[in-house]
Amino acid sequence: MNNTLQSHSSNIDNDECSLTDTQILALCKEFASITNTDTTLAKMILQENQWNLERAVSIYFDLLIDEKKSSIKEINNQYQNSELNIKSIIPHIELSNIKKNFKLLSWNIDGLDEYALEIRTQGVIDIIKKEEPDVIFLQEVIPTSLKLIRIFLPEYDSYTGNIEGYFVVILTRREMFRIHGFEIIAYPNTNMNRNLLIVHTTYKNSIEIDLMTSHHESGTEELSSQQRIEQLKLCFQRMLDAPLQRIVLFGGDLNMREKELRKIGNIPSGICDLWIETGKRNECAYTWDMSVNTNNNFPSNTFQPRARFDRLYFRSTIETNIKFQPISFELKGLEKLSSIQRYCSDHWAIQVNFEI
């Protein structure tokens, strides 16, 4: 949050008269921009919340969640005994015939940072809506963020590694996928309740794909490093064990150190690192970069770490008639949210495009 808005949020709770018309208008515009509403509604909600922007935004989204839940319940009650199926009314084959590329996005959205969580989650949602990936891997999601994601991204189905604390999520675009099931594999000896989430799918009614995401053990301690090694080995083995006619996509915030990859003998044959496969562009080399990302407030006169913690791996299919070729790798979430002057997360999103 910029200094002006920060002072508004903290100092004017009981003193509306301390605001000038210009300051009130600025707050209303910020609220309207964040919530995609108008300044009339913004002024009403801000006034009811003593012009505290963050509180007003949070309450607005809470009200919206309640309203959406009520609407969904009403629709479900109306049609629960009906033979109508929306998939039969709006067949996905039309979109399937048009699409010539496949897009996968992975992002640790930093749900453990409570600061402006709803605003940052809405920023994540806005980027997803703009990019329109077919599949999304999310890590460090908490229930509050998951509710917003499910409400504002209704075109996706969601699968979670847990429902409490923080967890991983896979989103699949509903009209493009048929889902056969999912698995949650707990990691032995994890101290952080980490696991591997796998969703078994068919894409465009013809391409079988296993989707796998995880958030590997955090920390610099030797014990954490050893756990990451074991977790990575398990994930690579699951990729190799998948039926050969299936494509396998795996990734997430793996907290990867290169020495750990070397200890397991590097990437197994038949699996590729998609950043390397698409040309190792230097501008995409760091997905957690404290020399640029200021969310964690590393002082400028101290060491500012950066790393490629977030990775995506690919195992192709033996089916020769299926084209699924990685063509580009990019970072997303590189812009600060103007209303709070922070990034959506302390991690950048990573996104890969495939030609199909």
From TrEMBL:
GO terms for biological process: double-strand break repair. It is found in: Nucleus, PML body. GO terms for cellular component: cytoplasm; PML body. Transmembrane segments: none annotated. GO terms for molecular function: 5'-tyrosyl-DNA phosphodiesterase activity; metal ion binding; nuclease activity; single-stranded DNA binding. Its cofactor is Mg(2+); Mn(2+). Keywords: DNA damage, DNA repair, Hydrolase, Magnesium, Metal-binding, Nuclease, Nucleus. Residues 105-347 form the Endonuclease/exonuclease/phosphatase domain. This is Tyrosyl-DNA phosphodiesterase 2. It comes from Rotaria sordida.
